[in-house]
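Q: Joint fold for the lines below.
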Amino acid sequence: MSHPVVRDIRFFLAHTPGLVRHGSKPTREIHSNHSVWQDIQGSLRSFDEAAAYAPHQVLLGNMKPDGLNTAAAPWYENMLAEYSTSGPHGELVNEDQFHGLLKAADEFDLVLLEEGYAARVAAELRSHPRVTDEEIERIQGVPYSRIEERLTSREGAIPLLTRDGETIGLVQTDYVDDASLAPDILLENLAVKATATMALRSVLAESGTDPAGLQYVIGSGEEAIGDRYNRGGGNLAKTVAEAAACVNSTGSDVKAFCCAPVHAMVVGGSLVQSGVFPEVAVVGGCSLAKLGMKFRGHLAKEIPVMEDVLAGFAVLMGPDDGTSPVLRLDSVGRHTVGAGSVQQAIVEALVADPLDRLGLKFGDVAKYATEMHNPEITDTAGSGNVPRTNYRLIAALAAQRGEIEKGSESRDRFVEQHGMPGFSPTQGHVASAMPFMAHALDDLRAGDYQYSMFLAKGSLFLGRMTHMSDGESFILESNSGAG
Amino acid sequence: MDLAGKRVIIVGERDGVPGPAIEACVRSAGAEPVMVQTQCFV
Amino acid sequence: MVVLLGSPTPESAEVYARTVTEGDPSWVGPLAGIALGLPVFHVLEEEVKSQFDAAVYQEQVEIMESVLDTDDIIAAMKNVREAVGV
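A: Joint structure:
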């Protein structure tokens, strides 16, 4: 059996401290107490602090994940002396550039920027190789008086502020009676479009892929676009395909909470394998709602509010090219309806079953990519170290099967060897296994190891329609070249 | 504290012990789950 | 009425335990300042664990004992109960 391959992946990060006020948690708390924003604002990072933050350098590909094991902690206090805003796996832009990209993504005059600010941002973005001339043209501003008038005279607009608290624009709806098109939702969806588009453009350009050669784009974000009659109806994937000039492509969205990217990779790989669409991209935009989600914990500990970064990604898949790592479709692990919500059952379905099917042992998978949430963000707010919990669960199952010794010493050794510290911004679906894929592709191409497993869980119960969880997994294998 | 016959509010967590797993235990002790939640902070 | 928690860390267990006993410690939720005084336990604690059917507990929960920092979670729960007297 031949298998589809994963050609490349890129990430697009935006440091957006001014948008933290539009995260779900800050929005609700600022609404009931306006002084909360002053508290948050005083703990927001500068762009240089965000860029020199070790986990971000791992995501950009300038540092290996295991490098975090020896990097001085806490990472937020120990900025790297050498860092870059771009790397082999992606780039990081500042909030001004991102506000410009929001305007560039807007085809309905939903975003208004102050004219002086718009001119400055357009000039800054003009030299960016992934921003089109047409988009630069679109970044036009209006007089400040018009922004002020719109914000104060009628409902249906929310201000855009910088980290410094300067109002530089707004987002407005064109239909105030539609809750599905409320300005905060439009902002969220424009941010998704902008981040996913930039990631897709990067992976296409940097892998030397003609956008016109792509046939299908799958969106895997958690956000929902649509109006009052079709809330969450989607299709952001085709929007992103259009913005990235994939003129011969169509697309659709796969919705499955945080594990949608893994589902989407499996669907995409199947489309490639069947020959229905040989050239497929999987994209995931950012999750703006999660900005500042754990700010209470961070403020209580007097540490920076670290949920200040938006992230998107784009992956290219295709038929076996003899070199790119293969997605083993016969390795797909899935959490079935009958499996229950027990942690052990989930890990058995996602890890043990696929290993059994391929005749592999737990130790044969060199690196497991799970939900790579940065523990400095979660643990400091009482939410625990998510990747470590997952790695310990995998180790516990390996011990139950007698593949490693029982006891915490053996467990911790397994976790260190086959896991890694979390390094992803807490961006929901983006954090789920995908952040390691760029490193895995490098390692598998270099022949450092043969197998890497990607697994993610989804919190279906959050939608109040079921108490169930969800999960899916697959194994990437180095390409033997045998075709 | 005797669980049998008591009404129980269950606050599980995705990255700890999920609500339905606690619910199964509570029922096995002869108690009545009146609310089952699972939290997720990522 | 009893509250049972499945929190993954001592810190989050403490927040929930305080919330349902003396009121929301962060003073932001609907239970801010409202002392319910409910008995509260973590599912990994012996007081409740011993009352579950052993086979059910083993299947549903037990693996998490070796995954979470169980001793610290239990200590945090005892501290809250002693401090608020439930």
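Q: Anything notable?
A: Helices of chain B lie at 19-28. The first strand of chain B starts at residue 7 and ends at 13.
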